[in-house]
Specification:
The chain has 146 residues and is an all-alpha fold. It has four helices and no strands. It is 94% helix and 0% strand. Helix 1 runs antiparallel to helix 2 and helix 3 crosses helix 4. It is elongated, with a radius of gyration of 28 Å. The termini are far apart.
Length: 146
């Protein structure tokens, strides 16, 4: 009789395990369906920010070219370097426009792994530039309100 009870318990355990696996799979599918609109919206926002960033970088490249043109008469060698920097900004804006978000994230990850010091330095420089920009925006906003 003990063998019969063991077989019955084993069948019940297997049934419970199969049921738990089915429930887990169903929950996973439901979660994936619910997360899809959120992921789609996040991709849309990222694409919008990517486009805005490309436009900003392109505008900055134009300003840098303008500064280089002003330097040409006084310091032609420096103007050449500044034009080169502007051309690199234009290339960066073009790459940003043409590449997908996933590709950009992958590239940043690869760069961070292969060049951690450069990545960290670039992140610090970007943070500094953003903070300076925000501080100057704060001051110009305060001046407009007065």
């Amino acid at each position: 009789m003990a063998d019969g009870e063991a077989i019955k318990d084993n069948d019940q355990s297997r049934g419970f395990g199969e049921r738990a696996a089915w429930e887990a799979q169903a929950s996973s599918a439901t979660f994936a369906e619910a997360a899809e609109p959120v992921a789609r919206r996040a991709r849309q926002l990222a694409e919008q920010q990517k486009a805005a960033g490309a436009e900003t970088i392109g505008g900055l490249a134009g300003a840098v070219h303008g500064a280089a043109r002003e330097l040409e008469a006084q310091i032609p060698q420096a103007a050449s370097y500044v034009h080169d920097a502007a051309a690199r900004l234009e290339d960066a804006a073009l790459q940003l426009r043409q590449r997908s978000i996933e590709d950009l994230v992958s590239s940043f990850g690869n760069f961070a792994r292969t060049q951690p010091a450069a990545f960290f330095g670039g992140a610090m420089l970007a943070g500094f530039a953003i903070s300076r920009f925000l501080k100057s925006s704060e001051h110009s906003g305060a001046n407009r309100q007065v």
